[in-house]
Amino acid sequence: MLVSGQVPLVGLFEWLQVLEANRRSVDLRLRRHGDSGRLRLVRGRIADARCGGESGDAVAARLLTWIDAHFEQQRSLDESPGAVTRANYDLMIDALAAASDLPAIDPAWRVTGDLVVTPPVELLQLAELNRRRCTILFHDDVEATVRFDGGRVVEARAGDAVNEQAVYAVIGARFGTFEIAPLEAAPETGFAGSVQELLVEGVRRSDEERFLRGEPVPDPDPTESQLMTELDESALSPTVRLAMARRYQPRGLATPAPVLVRLADDPDEDVREAARESIAHLPAKVKRALIEDADLPAVVREVLAPDADADEADEDLPPDEEYPVGIHGRIRQLSMADKLFLARRGTRNERLILMRHPSRRIAVAALESPRTSDQDIEIIAASSSANSEVLAAIARDEHHNHKYSVARSLVFNAKTPSEIGRRLVARLRERDLRVAWRDTNLSESVRAAVRKRIRALEVKRRF
C-alpha cells in the first residue's frame, strides 16, 4: 500500500510535521531530476537518509530541499537506528536556507494513496498546515469530496451530508483510497470550517459510535512500556512529549498515568506544566492509586496533595472503561468548580470545548484565560456551537475583533447576536458581502444590513 504524488501539492515540511505528530514509521522515497533519495522515519523522527551512496545528517538536510520532487511513501517495519542524529526541526531549518522557490502548481498533479497508510485525520491536519487550495476525494469506505482554501474547509459533501456532517463522515472512514488535487478557485458556499474544531468533534463522534457498536477503539499508539523506554532514551521530540503530556495522542487516546508522572519531571517547562495539569484532572481512583505508590516523585505528590483526603463519593461510578474514550467524556464528569478551574488553566482543546459550555460563567472564563491565543479566538468565532455570550465578548474586545478573519466569522456565525452581526457587516469585503447575501443561515436583519452595504458600495463606485 502506497501514497505517491508530487511534493508541491502537500508540502514536504508540512507532510513531515504530520508524520512526526502522529508518530509514523515510514519509508519516504524522493525522485527529482533523475536523482533519487530515501528518508526513513521511525515514530515520526528521521532516523536515516540515503542518496547516491551517502548517508547522514547532511544528506537528510539536502533531501529536504527537494520541495519539487515526486514522492512515494509506504509503511516501514524497520525501527533500527540510522545515521541521522539531528532532530527533524533542526534539519528543516537548514533546508529552508537552501531550498529553491516552490514551483507553480500544475492542475494535472495528483497525490493518491490508501487510507490505511494515511488516515483521514492526517489528511485534514495536512490541509490545515500547508494552507493550499486543494480538493481531497475519498472512495470506497466513504464517497466524499472535501475542498480547502487557506487551511479551512470551504465545502464538504458525503452522500446527502454536507459541510460539518460530511467531514465527520470522512473522519470515521477506516478503509478506502484518497486523491488530492489542486483547487483553482474556492467555491462561494459561505462555509469556512476550522479543521481543528472539526477534528476534535469528528474524532469524538467516531470513537463514540464505535464504542456503541461494541467495536474496539483503534489504538495506533505504542504501549506504556514502549513509551517509558523512549522517554528513558530521550527518543521523543518536545512536540510529541507535549502532546502526550496533554493526554491527546492520535485518535484521542489518553496517555497512561505512569507516563504522565514521568513527564511531570520533563526538562521542557511546557511539558512539565501540561503533565502536572493533566495529573491534577485524572479520575479520583487513579489519583488514589498514584498516592499509594511509595516511589511517587515529590513534585507529583504535591500536585495530588489536595486530593489525598478527597471524599469517596465517586465509588459508585462505573469503571472508566465503560465510558467512551475522549476529552468530552472526562469533562462531562467534572463538577462545576473543576470545570471553572479547567476553563482558566486547562489545555487548549479543553478550553475550546468549555468555550461552548451553556454556562455563561464557564464559557467566558475559558475565553478570558491568559492562555487563549488569537488562533483559539478564530476557531470559536467560527463555531456554530459557541456560547452566544462568548461571541458577544469577542466582538466587544478590540484586541480580538481587529482581525478581519474574526470579524468575518462573527458575521457568518448564526449564533452571533444580530445587533453585533449588523455592526460588523461594515467591515466585510465586497466578495464576502455577496456570499453573506446568499447565506440563508443568517438572520434577516443581518442580511438586510448586508444588502444595504452592497448598495452603498455600488453607489460609491458610480460616483
Search tags:
single chain; alpha+beta; 13-stranded antiparallel β-sheet
Helix content: 40-55%
The overall number of domains is 4
Query: Could you tell me how far the N terminus lies from the C terminus, measured between alpha carbons in angstroms?
Result: 62 Å
Judging from the principal axes of the Cα atoms, what is the shape? globular
Total DSSP helices: 24
Report the sheet with the most strands, covering strand number, pairing sense and barrel closure.
13 strands, antiparallel
Number of strand segments: 13
- Spans of at least 5 consecutive residues whose pLDDT stays below 50 are 217-222, 248-253, 307-325
Radius of gyration: 24 Å
Q: Please, what is the average pLDDT?
A: 79
Q: What structural class results from the helix and strand content?
A: alpha+beta
Describe the overall structure.
The protein has 463 residues and is an alpha+beta fold. It folds into 4 domains: 3-101, no CATH class; 129-212, no CATH class; 249-333, no CATH class; 374-462, no CATH class. The chain contains 24 helices and 13 strands. Strands 1, 2, 3, 4, 5, 6, 7, 8, 9, 10, 11, 12 and 13 form a 13-stranded antiparallel sheet that branches. A hairpin with a 2-residue loop joins strand 2 (26-32) and strand 3 (35-42). Helix 5 (120-130) packs antiparallel against helix 7 and helix 6 (164-171) packs across helix 7. The chain is globular. Residues 217-222, 248-253 and 307-325 have low confidence and may be disordered.
